[in-house]
Fold this sequence. Notes:
By secondary structure, this protein is α/β, with parallel strands linked by helices. It has 5 domains: 2-64; 104-209, Phosphatidylinositol 3-kinase Catalytic Subunit, Chain A, domain 1 (Ubiquitin-like (UB roll)), CATH 3.10.20; 239-372, no CATH class; 373-513, no CATH class; 524-623, Hect, E3 ligase catalytic domain (Hect, E3 ligase catalytic fold, 2-Layer Sandwich). The strands form 5 sheets. Strands 1, 2, 3, 6 and 7 form a 5-stranded mixed sheet that branches. Strands 9-8-10-11 form a 4-stranded mixed sheet. Strand 12 (370-371) and strand 13 (377-378) form a beta hairpin. The radius of gyration is 35 Å and the shape is flat. 28% of the residues are buried.
Amino acid sequence: MDDLIEFLRQRNVPEETIETLEQEKIDASVIELMTDEQLKTYFPSYGDRLAILGFCRQKASYRNDPNNRKSKLFERLKSKLSKKRKCDDSVTTSQQHKIRNAQKTMRKVELGWMNYEAENDIFRQVRTRKGGGTRKVDVSKESKKPDLIQQAVKLFFADGKSAEGDITEFEVDLKDYKEMSVDEDVTVGKLYADTKLPLLRFYLTTKKKSNLGSHVQQESDVALTTQELTSSPTTMPAERSENTDVIYIGSTIEPEMPYSTEIHSSNLDGNALDDSNTITFVTEDIFNVEDQSLDDTLPVCKKNKRILVVHRGHVLPELIAHFLDESVFGCEIKIQLIAPDGKLEKGHDEGGVVRDCLSEFWNEFYEQCTMGSSFKVPFLRHDFGQIHWESVGRIIVFGWQKEKYLPVKIAPVILEQAAFGSAKSNVIENFLKFVPESERAVFEAWQSDFNTVDNKELLEVLDGHSCRKTPTEDNAEEILQELAHKKLIQEPAYVIEQWASILSTAISHLDEISSVYENLQPTVRKVLKSLSFPENMNAQQREIQRYLTTYLRESDTPGLSRFLRFCTGSDLFLGKTIIIMFTLIQGFQRRPVAHTCGCILELSVFYDSYPDFRSEINKVLECNVWVMDII
Length: 631
């Protein structure tokens, strides 16, 4: 009875009810035999009745089988003790791990082999089937560069020979995981302590010996190439690019130099991958691909194709770094995205990846490099020089030529000034969309009826724009024209100047940029007309069609942009037809699936109601973290 009373008090059963049960001597065995109607007189709540009845039946099972009860109590006690022991152990696990590593005299390292290819002027990793690959070995923490070279030579040059030749024919060196030559005096233990890496990787590099004259010339060429690559992006030399199938570009972001790029030329044949599916780049860190998993099959690249590797979350600086090289327009450009976990996204670029990359780039650009409300105006940054603004201009041209994509949040008068040398749109209208909504309301009231404007508020707003004239009923258009010209033309003049030489030839054929902006803006009517459903649909499919069209009619402009970004990769309306396909996925695996390259949207037919459909698609679109994990 005591256990029952304690349980009832935990359920917040009134004390009067508990006293009544005690007086009537109603215990767990009696409650177990009562009907629901009888229980209702004591416990009005249905949830309480279910919980109490379950408790009483559990007590009955313990009474009928005392051994089982003792066994369960014993197991529960063991579980609690085990959890306490694990908790105590976990406190010191990290410390013990550090102590054990400090006490070790041997550490495990990975050794690989890279051989110099004179025809491509690069070091390429030798695959396992040719005697290379990567090997894990235990070495002393006091081992230095000569010790590791000796260990690697034993592994890759058995009896002093390999498939590439005799070891005496090569100049050897040892490079670390950054492809930098290892210091002669540094030990393995110190490298582990400095880098904090769980496993160090070193590469034995071999290069065929040659006569002194040619050797000096080769070193001079390599030094020049390294200097060119680290100082500024350049075009690959003509004699090298003639036999190049693809130029594979990645970027790094240094703290003092936010926008730097390195270029690496490769044929991307089977030798580029070792058995661990890892591509290794040799000149500098093109991007952090150490132990980067890639698909076994890479796309066959045509001549003059350039692949730009960009990391999610760093699209703005990395894409700018890629387009610092003006020769980028001479190649067929494709983009590969690196997911936040460091792995290459599976999506192949047939247009969808470019559109997605452009959308992410311009959203980051609006946030970090512009000021304004509906329309944005670039502002000068101390870390953006002439070459960076020119690079942004090339990205504008690339987006328009490749996918007819323009950054529609940049005030059109800015692009018009750069492309045509003068503004064709109404500057005041652009300005009113640049200022905040509260200021816009004040200015519009001033234009329509000066007597309705709060003079104090108007003066405060004008003072914020450094206006030196007193507003009157007659000078609204004059002052607004001056403020608009100052904010939209004069202040971004340096940016406009850098864009002018690029945009004046690339988009000068556009008659009215403002009309292009209007065509790119998503509307409900445009999006609904772009949907393509199967011709013959059953009742379930027609119901999902109704759900989707209802959802789009309820969406605002940002919602339509998210939907287009999910289905086509672009947050603007580019005239793509969105093909709707139906699936039979249900349960926990049910969700909308999009293929941006083909602009295909897959929807399950198993939705019980429109709110159910709306809730699920909202969760997908509003998460704003989409990784291309479908080929």
